[in-house]
Amino acid sequence: MSLYREYIAAYSLTSGQGSKGVGAILELPDGAWKDKISNNKLGAMSWYFDLHAESWHKHYKKIYGKLIANGLKIVNCTYKSKTWALATCSSQSSGNIFARVYRKRPDTDLYEWEAHKDVKGRRGPDLEKFGKETTDLSNQCVAVEVSSIELTKNLRSLKSSMTTLMSKISITH
Residue 74's beta-bridge partner residues? Predict the structure, then answer.
């Protein structure tokens, strides 16, 4: 068993007596790539949304018995990564709560968390499940931006309104 550990990042939170340490960390050891449908292309597709939005809303209402607040959603942007590591914490413990992500070996894309007992760490992709230790695919979707397709109430005709709900992703080291 190797003792090699290439630490990628370390995080800590100090909580006082009786306070609650709650948080999440998304670490992207190999960075991320953003793929976005341009506003021009979304605008060019508005006729398609206008044509079909009413039937999409009716279909949803038929299945779930109600319309969707703020409209149906369309994914207009994805953030993809080769690898990711996620740590979550919900702790009543006081003191130092820590999490460190490290690479298991220099020739792999396998990452692990070394963390406080109240921190749950996960990582992906699960290469070991496939008997692999490296990946050249950047297909792990870690975040999306969405727009709403809404029915307007004041007009008999259908209008689609594209409104971005999440405009950025922040990555902090």
Answer: 147
Q: What are phi and psi of 156, to 5 degrees?
A: -75, -30
Nearest-angstrom CA–CA distance, 13 and 154: 50
CA distance 72 to 102: 40
pLDDT band at 164 (very low <50, low <70, confident <90, very high): very low
Residue 84's pLDDT is 93
Tell the burial category of 111 from Cβ atoms under 10 Å away from its Cβ (0-12, 13-18, 19+). buried
pLDDT value of residue 94: 66
Which pTM was predicted? 0.69
**Alpha-carbon span 173 to 28, nearest angstrom:** 10
In one letter, which amino acid is 92?
A: Q
Interatomic CA distance for residues 118 and 81, integer angstroms: 26
Name which of 37, 34, 64 is nearest 49 in CA terms: 37
Beta strands in 5-116 (DSSP E): 6-15, 21-27, 33-36, 72-81, 84-91, 95-103, 111-115
Q: Which residues pair with residue 97 across a beta bridge?
A: 13
Q: Is residue 39 within a helix (H) or strand (E), and if so which, with residue range?
A: helix 39-44
State both tokens at 59. 């279909």
